[in-house]
Specification:
single chain, 352 residues, Phosphorylase Kinase, domain 1, Transferase(Phosphotransferase), domain 1, 6-stranded antiparallel β-sheet, 3-stranded antiparallel β-sheet, 11 helices, 11 strands, Kinase-like_dom_sf
Length: 352
């Protein structure tokens, strides 16, 4: 395990991004390894971990710049490429995000029934072997679209990406890649729980995390009403906005129907015993992951009461765990009992 001083030296001595993260960002394993290395080093040199240490602060800034430089060349498809579907043509713009299996691009509609000139986001896998996972993303977002098109469930729509279109792109290399087209998220000030955790490596206060967790439970309960399991409830897949307070559940590429076995897992993510054993999963599998996530976010600041609540959702037998829907009322009671009357507490998000 590196010390803070050793981490500072390693970052300072790196001449290029490749010195820290490897030669390329073109396949899944290096991407995941680099992400873990980045977060591990950032926890050691973050100003919250080493207050007043100017070398650590400089190292944190350099580390972030090197990681950004490392991820930039791995766009997967150059800006200006046009993707076609039966409904529209989409011109890719800048790379704006990298998930476990796919890149996210700004794009605009050139022509089509979905609205010429409209701004959208395209999700395109880096590896064509992930095409099946992109199809799962399409199926789940379609199911969520049907759910939220009904009046009494429309309020859930903000918890999920909104699907616009889907298609298959034949690249210049002759390889087909499935892709989905989604609505861009409105407004500034978004960050993933992974970014929040990196900014607060010792954990955040339970009163701050409570509103995020409560909305995550609503998102999971809504998803489970479609008969599907998320399968990847981890920090990179939960997007947070603090004003207004909003959570968006991302990463639906790993989803399956309840009662099925997961098609893939995310390196480094916590999974319940049934998933690790290759057995069918259920909504209670997501509940397990959500409460591992809760303990990760609270970190060293977790109180005995918070740990006890989470552990009730981490039992080995899925049948002994509550459903997300049942947990909502229980968590509301827990919030009232533990933190007292609810009040607005500003929570500044790290730069996303």
């Amino acid at each position: 395990m590196l010390t803070t001083t050793e981490a500072i030296d390693r970052i300072t001595e790196a001449r290029t991004a490749a010195d820290l993260f490897g030669d390329t960002a073109t396949s899944n394993d290096p991407v995941r390894a680099a992400r873990r290395r980045f977060h591990g080093l950032l926890q050691l040199v973050h100003p919250d971990r080493a207050p007043g240490d100017l070398r650590a602060a400089d190292a944190a800034m350099r580390l972030t710049a090197l990681y950004d430089a490392w991820t930039a060349p791995a766009a997967g498809a150059p800006s200006g490429v046009v993707l076609q579907t039966r409904s529209a043509d989409y011109e890719l713009g800048d790379l704006i995000g990298r998930g476990s299996i796919a890149n996210l691009y700004r794009a605009r509609v050139l022509d089509g029934t979905v609205g010429s000139g409209r701004a959208v986001v395209v999700k395109l896998p880096r590896d064509p072997r992930a095409n099946g996972l992109i199809e799962a993303d399409f199926e789940t977002l379609s199911a969520l679209g049907r759910l939220t098109s009904v009046a009494d469930s429309a309020w859930l729509a903000g918890y999920y990406p909104s699907l616009v279109d889907r298609g298959v792109h034949l690249g210049a290399d002759g390889v087909e890649r499935s892709f989905t087209v989604q609505e861009p998220l409105g407004g500034p000030g978004w960050a993933t729980l992974a970014q929040i955790h990196a900014a607060h490596p010792d954990g955040i206060d339970g009163d701050d995390y409570a509103w995020m967790h409560r909305r995550l439970l609503w998102a999971l309960a809504g998803l489970h009403r479609t008969g599907r399991v998320h399968g990847a409830v981890h920090p990179d897949n939960v997007l947070v906005c603090s004003d207004p307070r909003t959570v968006v559940l991302l990463g639906h590429s790993f989803s399956v129907r309840a009662g099925q076995v997961l098609n893939a897992t995310v390196d480094g993510a916590a999974y319940p015993p049934e998933a690790l054993a290759g057995r069918p999963v259920s909504g209670e599998s997501d509940v397990f992951q959500a409460h591992r996530l809760m303990l990760t976010m609270l970190g060293d600041r977790a109180t005995p009461a918070e740990i006890c609540f989470a552990q009730g959702c981490l039992q080995d037998a899925a049948a002994l765990r509550p459903t997300a829907a049942d947990l909502i009322t229980e968590f509301d009671d827990f919030i009232d009992h533990t933190y007292g009357p609810r009040r607005f507490r500003p929570f500044p998000l790290p730069n996303s």
